[in-house]
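[SOLVED] Need 3D model of a two-part complex

Original post:
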Amino acid sequence: DIVLTQSPVLAVSLGQRATISCRASQSVSISSINLMHWYQQKPGQQPKLLIYRASNLASGIPARFSGSGSGTDFTLTIDPVQADDIAAYYCQQSRESPFTFGSGTKLEIK
Amino acid sequence: EVQILETGGGLVKPGGSLRLSCATSGFNFNDYFMNWVRQAPGKGLEWVAQIRNKNYNYATYYAESLEGRVTISRDDSKSSVYLQVSSLRAEDTAIYYCTRGRELGYFDYWGQGVMVTVSS
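Solution:
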């Protein structure tokens, strides 16, 4: 199985940049297609798709969110961080079944 | 508007079984893959199963941790997908989410989830 590793917690100040990383145990890219996706989950809610294929913003998601990376290393950036961004963020790979998620990064405000 | 509604959760005894249902509307169900993803209390997300559409011969895929105990199915005429889980264990206690899946493997719409509790 492809294991995705995320740091458990990230603390940032409001208005600053948050950089959340996800490292895969093997490449999740096929040719130029990066099969890594990002989700946001607020307490008590279902997850919401933020970024697909590493860098594509999902419908209705603010441009403060962006994604980058390829191969095994991927990053979700939130700039600037707002109070409404307090949530858990999960990466997910679709390179191969089982379609694994990272363990999640909780974004906290300093 | 895309709508996804899961039903069928509840309290089940260890060793028991249940069938979760997921009714959808607001999109052409036939065109999409469908998935189940679960989340144990206070834990992260775990993909459970996927069923592809007719173009992919309704192929199914399962998480290894559940293989042999789960079956995913769909009824395109009802725009619905189902998850049958048997030999339930305490560690199957979780919120089960139904998600719409895209061919490149991401989940673009999620239901509110249904709680399954396995306890005697």
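Edit: The mean pLDDT of chain B is 97.
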